[in-house]
Design goal:
Structural class: mainly alpha
Distance between the termini: 18 Å
Helix content: 55-70%
Shape: elongated
Oligomer: single chain
Radius of gyration: 21 Å
Order of helices and strands: EHHHHHEHEE
Number of strands: 4
Largest sheet: 2 strands, antiparallel
């Protein structure tokens, strides 16, 4: 006998989406240069702090920064289709972790201890999505009670 878990994965995807969206509105740099900026201007300023990279690298980082709230919105779409445990939910969670890890690493390297709450909100949102994907969909009551499916204590079912 199996029992469906309450929509834990759905809640995880909705919460992860909220955190990813909120990261776009939070400060990514707590103080100093870049603390009031968002998007492309933020990436340009932070990149210029320590001998910037090529414009292709800056463009990639800008696209990744904009992809973070987009992943949050896609998480809500996945929940709407009811597929957090499906291939689309798993792919979204993995892509979000990679994107957030890349952009957060850039910010931690460039601004160090001045990293703002946006960095942490994005990381928490990505980890929430990844955790929601691995939550089991159902619980088998017989294994929870100490017996395996198809067995009663001390006996085995034969067909």
């Amino acid at each position: 006998m199996t029992r469906a878990l309450p929509r834990t994965a759905d809640v995880g995807f909705v919460l992860g989406g909220v955190l990813l969206e909120a990261s776009a509105f939070a400060h990514w740099v707590r103080s100093g240069n870049g603390s009031t900026l968002r998007g492309h201007a933020l990436i340009d300023t932070v990149n210029s702090l320590a001998h910037g990279h090529s414009s292709a690298w800056v463009m990639l980082l800008t696209l990744l920064w904009y992809a973070i709230p987009a992943c949050g919105a896609l998480a809500w779409v996945v929940v709407g289709f009811g597929a957090p445990h499906g291939p689309s939910g798993r792919a979204l969670a993995m892509a979000t972790v990679v994107i957030v890890a890349t952009i957060d690493t850039f910010f931690v390297i460039k601004v160090g201890t001045r990293a703002g709450p946006g960095v942490y909100l994005a990381a928490l949102g990505a980890l929430t999505l990844a955790t929601a994907v691995v939550v089991p969909q159902t619980v088998d009551k017989s294994t929870v009670c100490g017996t395996t499916s198809g067995q009663v204590r001390g006996t085995s079912r034969s067909s």
